[in-house]
Amino acid sequence: MMRPSLTTSFAAAAACLFVAASAAAEAKPKANPPVAADAKLDCNAFETAAKELFSKGSYGASLKQAEAAAKCTGTNAMATIAATAACKIKNSDRARYWSAHVEGAQLQGVVQACLSAKIVLSASSAATSDCKALADAGRTRFSEGNYSAALSSFEAAMTCDPKQKLEALAGIAACKINSKVKAASWAARSSDGNYNKIVQACAQAGIELPAPPAPAKTK
Fold first, then answer.
1. Range of 197's domain?
2. CB under 8 Å, gap of 24 or more: what pairs does 45-50 form?
């Protein structure tokens, strides 16, 4: 019987080692695949933060959290808050972007918030908003003594429809909240009769406005 050569023995040993190593590699548990970073984000936390910040008037921070929530969830569930917050900070680009994802009654609220910030989202959105309703809301708030809200509604109504003649009411509301700058601004846009009404209302509030300009002399 012939003895195996050294070469044959080494080859056999190497083969055995390879088989053993392969078996060990297969038996070793494989590492878990990496988890996507977005999967670790707490989407609900973003949404909660956006709502809380919005209620506190931190609209810029609320917008950031709402957009983070949208990126996290891949939905537009926070579009209303994002659009309204963008209007509040007068960011027209973000307001128009997010308002495009808002529908129904919620869109009307966004439109009104943007009009109050002098932002017209689009010709169609301005047309769909009820400009007369804004004026009526202003009159109701004015009669209730809520002059700040009334002024916002009057300004939104005139932005929505410049043909509405609400300058006198806006000016008087501004006097009532001691806003001399806005009172003077609306007085300057009013007719002589309405100018005097604003001047009188401001005088009662301790605000002095300049006398109306003298009418131009006719030759």
1. 131-204
2. 46/72, 47/77, 47/78, 50/78, 50/81, 50/82, 50/85
Kindly report each contact of residues 208-215 with a partner whose C-beta sits within 8 Å and lies 24 or more positions away, as own/partner: 209/180, 209/183, 209/184, 210/184, 212/187
Do 104 and 164 share a domain, yes or no? Answer: no
> Distances in Å between the alpha carbon of 217 and those of 190, 196, 212, 213, 214?
19, 20, 15, 12, 9
199 and 140 assigned to the same domain = yes
Which CATH number does the domain housing residue 170 bear? 1.25.40
Residue 20, exposed/middle/buried by CB under 10 A (0-12, 13-18, 19+)? exposed
The residue to which tokens 């939104």 are assigned: 156
| Residue 189: alpha-carbon gap to chain centroid | 30
Considering the entire predicted model, what is its pTM?
0.49
In our burial notation (b when 16+ CB lie closer than 10 A, e otherwise), range 103-130 reads eeeebebbbbbbbbbebebeeebbeebb
Boundary residue ending a domain (128, 154, 182):
128
- Cα dihedral: 127, 106, 177, 173 (round 10): 30
- Number of domains forming the structure of the chain: 2
121 and 135 co-located in one domain: no
Looking at residue 56, its pLDDT comes to: 94
pLDDT at residue 103 tops 90 = no
At 213 the pLDDT is 64
